[in-house]
UniProtKB/TrEMBL annotation:
Enzyme Commission code: 2.8.2.-
Source organism superkingdom: Eukaryota
Coiled coil regions in record: none
Any one GO MF annotation of this record: sulfotransferase activity
Transferase recorded as keyword: yes
Pfam families: Sulfotransfer_1
Protein name, as recorded: Sulfotransferase
Source organism of the structure: Acer negundo
Record's keyword terms, sorted: Transferase
Species lineage: Eukaryota, Viridiplantae, Streptophyta, Embryophyta, Tracheophyta
Amino acid sequence: MPSSTTITTTSMVITPTQSTKHHQKFVAGAVAVEEKEEKEEFELLIQECKELLLSLPKEKGWRTPFLYQFEGFWCQPKEIQSIISFQKHFKSKESDVILATIPKSGTTWLKALVFAIINRKRYSNTQNHPLLTSNPHDLVPFLEYKLYSNNQVPDLSNVFPDDHDQPRTFATHVPYPSLEESIKNSENVKIVYLCRNPFDTFISSWHFINKLRPESLPDKFSLEDAFKMYCNGVVGFGPFWEHVLGYWNESLKKPETVLFLKYEDMKEDIVSNLRELASFLGFPFSVEEERENVIEEIAKLCSFEKLKELEVNKSGKAMTFSKQFENKHLFRKGIVGDWVNYLNPSMVNQLSQLMEEKFEGSGLSFKVL
């Protein structure tokens, strides 16, 4: 645009010089907000974690000012602090069950299904089932977001009383290599990993983050910016491919203790997958239960449609890192292939090539539609 040209509106004339100054002022304001947010985050951390963060690579965050690369994966400062506490203080029991996912790949669904399978004798009457009045995240606690958040060291005997013989069931987004050592070294702890195709995982993550992104951070997080970061591996607990391959490879080495499930397969054939899941956990369905359609009842109780319409998941709230979180944000569509409504052909081609490269030779493939 020639230097003498002006942009006219109904109320003012803005010269290019004024526009540049306005943009510079906006950028400076955005940087100031990010610095303020980062400072506030740091103030909530213990000194050990603050010093660690200063030594870690960092990139622009999705819903926080920055993500930090800790033990090879990207996460928020408060997550790093809680993961360190988990790694230091958690000690597994041989009967423990660990549910692992990368964010936005069916975590809530997996928690509901496993809770229902393990506790089906205790809550045989589905009309009074805890899942009807409690969000799955309250029934199966996250290690890093709840139990060890804010540098806590919980007394797990209070969380899981020994008055019944059910296994302790936990959830995590932590990559396999960074799990606490007694989990990885156990020959009996069961790990269930649920994987979702990278296209839908990305779109679900982008929607989720924009719902939770603080108003104090500048503008909306664009699809284009998110896509670039995702392809560079800069996403919570990512890169996606490293997170998935970590658990996939362990499931091939130790199929008796690591079960690898696919979201798309479960949507396609829930009964067969629940049968496999129950057997893996040590709670197989009996012939009589199958005859009485217990598997189908559990699938129905834990379905996306059922959970989304429950009052606790429409208006209920949970605490994460001492902040309230609205349960409704956990439920959007829960379908396979929604990415086609958002990604252009160039994005699809780029992500397809990237995943072919990263998963080459692994034997792992995804259904994307």
